[in-house]
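Technical annex B. To support the medicinal chemistry partners, we prepared a structural model of the target in complex with C2E, based solely on the information shown next.
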Amino acid sequence: VAQTAQARLVRYEPEHGQKIRDRRLLDLALRQALKRDEFYLLYQPQIDLKSGEMVGLEALLRWRHPELGIVSPADFIPLAEETGLIVQIGEWILHEACRQVAQWRWQGRISINVSAVQFQQGNLVAAVHNALVASGLPPHRLDIEITESMNIASDPANLEILHQLSDMGVRIAMDDFGTGYSSLSYLHSLPIHKIKIDQSFVRNLPNAQSEVIIETTIIMAQRLGKTVIAEGVETKQQRDYLASVGCDVGQGYLFGRPSFAIELALDQTSAA
Ligand code: C2E
Ligand code: CA
Ligand code: CA
Ligand code: CA
């Protein structure tokens, strides 16, 4: 019985009749995952393209299911968003990431992804505040990543949350920039400090069209006082190009895959 249930779980297909049953199984498994401590975080380096220094880390969620093995966030976050469970999972992520980073000698920044549902249903400001207080991490070391698809400014309540986070000293990064409809001039009116150029543009390099988008984004973002990060940097050629057009920070497999904290050797309390 368990085997069949697991098989259905992996083949989760929202289109078919199995839907309700599968979703229930996945939902149940997710609720157990929180209780059983099956979630963990990996960290991916963010590199200053001028100095080569690791200035930040993005926390990326993973789920180790006892039978299914490692499940990708893309496979379970959508359902956790639909059921609202992402609010609790998101609070766990905030606490865990801040707790770990505050313990390290390394003094860089930590980027944490939040879902639109955490804006709508959770008390995101309180959750962030609690995670900072509990860990002792200074607010200025925390970046909150939101996505363009959240269409944040369409709801004044969302905008208020962004302002409260920003007033706390937390910085806001717009993730997957270029894939949605927001223009930089419009972002200018929002408390958004960083722009993350989506990896689809970087992956295409060298490509005339991607280069126009990347270079225009960098020029406008920087003139508006925002930092620019490029995601999905996989080759030296991509890195060299991005550095040559003035991109501030790079993130991608070239610099490092998402890794366990211990692999990054940031947990040492004294210099080597
Ligand atoms: P994202 O926030 O855009 O994260 C970047 C994704 O690109 C990550 O996938 C990362 O592993 C992958 N990546 C990084 N560098 C490269 C590269 O050089 N090449 C390629 N091909 N890929 C690269 P991941 O970890 O599977 O996460 C997928 C998505 O799941 C994230 O996209 C984010 O939307 C969501 N997610 C991950 N962790 C969390 C979390 O803690 N909370 C929330 N709400 N969402 C999360
Ligand atoms: Ca992200
Ligand atoms: Ca992204
Ligand atoms: Ca994404």
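Notes passed to the chemistry partners:
The pocket of calcium ion (ligand 2) is lined by residues 58, 113, 145, 175 (CB under 6 Å).
The two ends are 52 Å apart (CA to CA).
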